[in-house]
Amino acid sequence: MAISFGSRALVKLCEEQDLKGWFRKKLNVDLFNPTDAATFTWVQEFVSKYHKLPDIETLGKKFPALKSVEAVEPASYYVDGLETAWLHSQLNRIGVGINDIMGQPGKTCDDAFNHVHKIMGEVYAQKYRTNLTSLKEDAKKLMLAEYHNVEGVENQAIFGWDYLDSQGGAEPGDIVSIIGRPQAGKSFLSIYIAMENMLTKKHKVLVASMEMATKIMFQRATAMMAGTNLTQLKLKQYATPTYKKYREGLECLSSLEGDIIVMNGNLAVDVESIYEVAEHYECQSVVIDGAYLCRHKNSRLDRFQRAAENCEIMKRYTEDLGVVTFSSWQFNREAAKKKGQEKAGLEDIGYTDAIGQISSIVLGMFQEDGNVDSIATKKIRVMKGRGGEVGEFDIHWDFDKMNFAQISNGIPDTQDL
Known about the structure:
The protein is α/β, with parallel strands linked by helices. It has helices at 5-16, 19-25, 34-50, 56-62, 75-102, 109-127, 135-147, 162-165, 186-199, 214-226, 230-234, 240-251, 271-280, 303-321, 333-337, 354-358; strands at residues 175-180, 204-209, 259-264, 285-289, 324-330, 361-366, 377-384, 389-396, 415-416. The longest helix has 28 residues, at 75-102.
């Protein structure tokens, strides 16, 4: 007898011991055949009682038939197969039901339509179940877990600036967009954020640069880590004490728990490839520097359509992989014309409105006019927060020590929209 997708899915989920993955998939008994439904119900009760998935050995003792079930693919593969098999059964149910209804005296096309409508409602409820929650059933658990930080947030990323990190940083599934005019320093902030997550969170971070060579990326990252002058590094002009400090920084690299994987996009990488590499290296964060230069598999799209399509692809992969994506984009020319009280907004992001719409957090880089300290500082404006917050803070813009940290610390004075 063929082994069902339901059996393989349950076996693999117990092998992986990914409790958060179990909750995210929001499986229900309707997806399973009668035999697998009994297994699913038992696993569900086990999780509810012990707050973990049963060990694969425990599962085998309870259901001996599952001992011989091999599941070599990821659990999501078998869940997809389970959903497809269920969908086929519902389509078959529609066809059988229509034939039965139309064969009965007095039945009309409206009766057949109502039958189809009812089943399609069930299909949509299953298809979008991970996006649907009930205030009555889910709010209490979700809010208390959030308030008391019971479950915590795995793979939570940081910015390295207290203004934003005190609000919870960035969570898995978030798209964070950094917006600035050309040559505004977006790449430096991208590398800074990647370094903070590698050093502080001990994350593996994939940095995909669409236009910057790997050597330049390494120069900036290592100078940032050592706190030494970037220009002197490029010109090979470190004084002896500075060179010693830089070498000490390099020696520390081998002992780090986190890592940065640099992907040289060279103007020719599509978004799917970036996330496939990130998944292979098990990265918790993805940084796409110059996201507006990413390619698309459909070469016929113009640059505006390509950017919009790529935003949607980024969001889908970010949520599916449970990572955080930091991406940099450009302001349009109109943004440069806005002065004083007339601040650039989400509508001034170049290429597509999808960037502002899809991003959880949007940060704008600005240079204040008439500020005598402007060479040494940058203003970061929160143009969109996850909860609708807006605000701003200043960071160092110090290339002598490669310091891009926040100038003042403390709880942010944000304004909710």
